[in-house]
Specification:
14 strands; seven-stranded mixed β-sheet; alpha/beta; globular; 2 domains; three-stranded antiparallel β-sheet; Aspartate Aminotransferase, domain 1; Aspartate Aminotransferase, domain 2
């Protein structure tokens, strides 16, 4: 990994120390150039005409995304976000009143709310597996609940947005696969940060976004759907002419690939920008990215300990999200103080993680999310700024 070249490729590194990669990372110049070039061409050529002329380039997105998560391009749908992907997946499942859905306490806020909405509207039963005292979902409890309830769906967030925890999605996937249970994985924070392999995870759906660790554009994401989802013709509730063919006055046939989850109106400039972002990560190597992030996070945690700031993250396996307690400080004040000196971080609040933060007895946390283009010197600058803030 040539860090100097990577930072030259990242214009934002010249003016900011960016530790908010779990929110929205800094894109490489190739990403913004691809988006700008497509829009410029479209403005003088026409929207439909540009899509036809650039058809091969657009299709490369599906091949790149498939390579990233070890699947086939027919299993990939472009979406506007991980949450949009999640909603599309849920809407394709024929839930009935009384159906059980099994999740974890640490799951992402929007996913939790979506299931609570389904519980209110459709009468499903939401069940949460216990958490280990050492962090993460209790696999024994998860297995017992699967055996007891045989849920219609098991859903798990790979890396929660409010914690550095990495959940054992592969182990849960094996349980679901053995019982023929639908399995949905939110990989919003993990894709682009650590290796993600849908064949090892055994999931039926996997959702992700481009703006976080993949360093792509906002308003872009993708959805993986397994072959059995396609073969069963599970289809989003409001499929449109992108996803289905109108075969008669009262009939339609869905596409036999994941494009049935797409909408006709796609932002093709973001599609080609997303392709560039994925290719950039693939060229570096996700394993290399993961290894570099671990070095940065280990160093950062050590230095946080040296200035007596408590890291809240627990769990056997942890990621490039670090949350810390800032006693006596107000979240907006900390955030603005750091932004004023060109250090980007984020805050996460109890309303984002009602169960997790209640157990940790905190109302909010400062979230620091390094990525491979960050440097050891930038970590030192952050630590000095936090130490000054605490004086």
């Amino acid at each position: 990994m040539n860090l100097d070249e990577i930072r030259k490729d990242t214009p934002g590194c010249k003016s900011k120390i960016h530790f908010n990669n779990a929110g929205a990372s800094l894109p490489p110049a190739t990403v913004t150039e691809a988006i700008r070039d497509y829009i410029s061409f479209e403005s003088i050529t026409g929207g439909y005409e540009t899509a036809d002329i650039r058809k091969a380039e657009i299709q490369e997105f599906y091949r790149s995304a498939a390579r990233l998560i070890n699947t086939n391009e027919n299993n990939i749908a472009f979406t506007s976000s991980a949450t949009s992907s999640f909603s599309l997946a849920l809407s394709s499942i024929p839930f009935q009143p009384g159906d059980k859905v099994l999740i974890a306490n640490e799951d992402y806020i929007s996913n939790q709310i979506a299931f609570l909405s389904l519980q209110k509207r459709l009468g499903i039963q939401l069940i949460r597996a216990k958490s280990l005292s050492t962090g993460g979902v209790d696999l024994n409890d998860m297995e017992e609940l699967i055996n007891k309830h045989h849920p219609k769906l098991v859903s798990l967030t790979h890396i929660p947005t409010n914690s550095g925890l990495i959940q054992p999605v592969e182990a849960v996937g094996k349980m679901c696969h053995a019982k023929d249970i639908l399995y949905l994985v939110d990989a919003c924070q993990s894709t682009g940060q650590i290796p993600v392999d849908v064949k090892n995870i055994h999931c039926d759906f996997l959702t992700t976004t481009m703006r976080k660790f993949l360093r792509g554009p906002r308003g872009a994401g993708f959805l993986f759907t397994s072959d059995r989802i396609l073969e069963k013709k599970l289809t989003p509730l409001f499929v449109d002419m992108r996803g289905a063919e109108w075969t008669g006055a009262d009939t339609y046939e869905v596409r036999m690939n994941a494009k049935r989850f797409e909408e006709w109106e796609l932002p093709y400039a973001l599609v080609v920008g997303s392709k560039e972002a994925i290719n950039y990560a693939l060229n570096i190597g996700v394993e290399n990215i993961s290894a570099r992030n671990k070095v940065l996070c280990d160093l950062l945690k050590k230095k946080l300990h040296s200035i007596e700031l408590k890291v809240l993250d627990i769990g056997k396996d942890q990621s490039s999200i670090i949350t810390i307690e800032m006693p006596g400080k107000q979240p907006n004040g900390v955030l603005q103080y750091l932004r004023a000196i060109d250090i980007n971080t984020s805050t996460t609040h109890r309303s984002h993680a009602q169960i997790d933060f209640a157990s940790k007895k905190v109302d909010w946390a400062l979230r620091i999310s390094p990525h491979y283009f960050n440097t050891e010197d930038e970590i030192d600058s952050l630590i000095q700024s936090l130490e000054d803030l605490n004086d």
